[in-house]
Amino acid sequence: MNEIAAATAVDSAARLDALEGIAGRLLERARRAGADQAEVSCSEDTGLEVNVRMGAVETVEATRDRGIAVTVYFGKRKGSASTADLREDSLAATVEQACAIARHTEDDPAAGLADPELMAREPASGWPEFDAWHPWALDAERAIDLALACEQAGRDSDARIANSDGASASTGTSLAVYANSHGFCGRERGTHHSLGCALIAGQGDAMQRDGWYSTALAPEDLESAASIGREAARRTLARMSPRQLPTGAVPVLFAAEVARSLIGHLVGAVSGGALYRRASFLLDAAGTRVFPEWFAIDEDPFLARGFRSSAFDAEGVATRASPLVEAGVLQRYVLGSYSARKLGLATTANAGGVHNLAVKANAGDLGMLLRNMGRGLLVTELMGQGVNAVTGDYSRGAAGFWVENGEIAFPVDGVTIAGRLREMFAAVEAVGSDVDRRSHLLTGSILLGRMTVAGAD
């Protein structure tokens, strides 16, 4: 560990200690105010982001945010309040406000902390960090240089790159403490860094835009500025002179960077809030086959350098590795304690969301998937929000490439792809090994046997 990193580690530990102390004092205030249960979330984030365009600096933004949220329970009545002011009188007023709200709300039978026996236990060595803490000594001048180099590499790639939508570089740190009246106190810290570029090729009505970015928890995991710029240029140039397609039903291959949106729709449909509100196309689907028999999705909260790794969820419940889909069958829902109680089920330690979902691959890279598809549409961009979470109806604008004889033939835009998500999931024919690792939803490209593509006619 270098000198700067060592100093940052010491500082972050001290700041976590301070947040833990605040949480403890707030819980004690809530107890003295008569609350039967209470929980406190404290966070502190720092960041630096620069944006450049056409070789000039547009913005330089340094941020330092913090937040304190208090929730109290009087029996089954709940009240919450928050503040960013760490003065003791402000913290006291926040507890008072939360208590006042709770006293004037109606009973909610599902309200309350997660069960105490489910709380994660801190190891003697301290909470594991899953290799998520990698501060970057990136100042504004260096960040500007990186963003400029990224954009310039893209602009220098080809004379047809006539314009730029800009490039950016950013770095940030996050500290968080969650504590509750069960005696649980969990603390986490993490870093996040990114570098990206968007370019414009052509002139007038023939202009096309595309880009590329890299994001990681450790700066050494970022792609180089030059390679990001060149990839942005390659993707932009590949979209020039697009054609439209006639309307028809054809195989559709979702490139990895857009395929994860399909997994996101699945997660939304099996999440507790949608289920107890009966606003999901996958109501009562647990234990039934949703995907083909070979299909699987596993959740791994303990993944090193995972974007959503944690030993506990947002309620302090111990996380655990478990399948979400196995042999095509939906094994469970995605629940926190509140939604679990509403459904008469047990929490799955997913308060706050899922922790690193990995989709099982059954095929090779994108090139192999194209050859297997033979003829169809490769989707590299999705537009619009045409997804009905209640019915599963799916209709989104798309751009990408038409494929003939297993090879890209020409770029395509101005089309709409449509289907029903339940049928789309059942129609998955392959998942590639070309995993896009820029997210906590880890999947390769996904090939669907048939979708409706609405084109020029």
UniProtKB/TrEMBL annotation:
List the Pfam families.
Answer: PmbA_TldD_1st (PF01523), PmbA_TldD_2nd (PF19290), PmbA_TldD_3rd (PF19289)
The source's superkingdom equals: Bacteria
Indicate yes or no for the key word Hydrolase.
yes
Name of protein: Metalloprotease PmbA
- InterPro entries referenced in this protein's UniProt entry, alphabetically: Metalloprtase-TldD/E_C (IPR045569), Metalloprtase-TldD/E_cen_dom (IPR045570), Metalloprtase-TldD/E_N (IPR002510), PmbA (IPR047657), TldD/PmbA_N (IPR035068), TldD/PmbA_sf (IPR036059)
List the GO terms this entry assigns under cellular component, sorted alphabetically: cytosol
Family of the protein in this entry = Belongs to the peptidase U62 family.
Species of origin: Pseudoluteimonas lycopersici
The residue ranges of the Metalloprotease TldD/E C-terminal domain are: 247-455
Any GO BP annotation: proteolysis
Query: A GO molecular function for this record?
Result: metallopeptidase activity
What SUPFAM superfamilies does the database record attribute to this sequence? Answer: Putative modulator of DNA gyrase, PmbA/TldD
> What gene name is listed for this protein?
pmbA
Tell me the ranges covered by the Metalloprotease TldD/E central domain, including all copies: 134-239
Residues forming the Metalloprotease TldD/E N-terminal domain are: 38-102
Keywords, alphabetical:
Hydrolase, Metalloprotease, Protease
